[in-house]
Amino acid sequence: MNRLNTKTLPRSWVAVGISMLMATSAWAQEPAAAKAALRGNATAGEKIAQSGSAGGAAACATCHGAKGEGQAGFPALAGQHAGYLERQLTQLAAGARQSTVMAPMAKALSEQERADVAAYYSGLALPIKPVRGALPGKKDDDGAWLVERGRWADGIPACAQCHGPGGVGVGKDFPAIGHLPADYMQSQVDAWNKGQRDAGPLGLMGKVAKKLTADDVKAVAAYYQRLHNPGAAAAPAKP
């Protein structure tokens, strides 16, 4: 077969080839442009958080507090990673995470609005600090062992290994948990065990949840409370 002599190609063919290359480059950049368009706007997110959305989502502050500090039955949102918050809203809207209260709110938000709300809350101050407790020398505190050492005999890694010192969270995959009350922690463990919530990276939390007892959850929450408020007495557990 004779080698194609590019010098003899008509200029119109060359122009077509260049146009195709430029189009291919544009197609490759299109997803990136679309992703950039969904970058969260914290100012717009604050308006939704305080007043609700045009699509019918209620103001986030109604349940999660004026500054995302959380209240009974509703977790704190302030300072959580934007990627984590946006993914949870997306999963709630799609049904991958189930909640009779939050699913309708997430569905009423557009993709851009979910990104905006996530950007707003992630920009607020996280109310806990990255402090690490002393490694327990003997098993006299189940909460300390689970958080700082884990219970490897049952295949449970230390909470601090994924959620960071003091449970302040690590990136978009491991949220801050050091300020969550025991009842909310337990509700999420129950959700994982019932398949009502995505099991997380590598299915890790889904596996861990199956090995945690109600006493374990209470112990972890109580330990975090002592860690962040050493002078305060632990709040009594709800019946």
TrEMBL record:
UniProt keyword annotations, A-Z: Electron transport, Heme, Iron, Metal-binding, Periplasm, Signal, Transport
Protein localization: Periplasm
Start and end residues of each Cytochrome c domain: 40-125, 138-228
Keyword Hydrolase: no
Signal peptide positions (record): 1-28
Pfam families for this protein: Cytochrom_C (PF00034)
PANTHER family found in the cross-reference section: CBB3-TYPE CYTOCHROME C OXIDASE SUBUNIT FIXP, CYTOCHROME C4
This protein's name: Cytochrome c
Organism: Comamonas guangdongensis
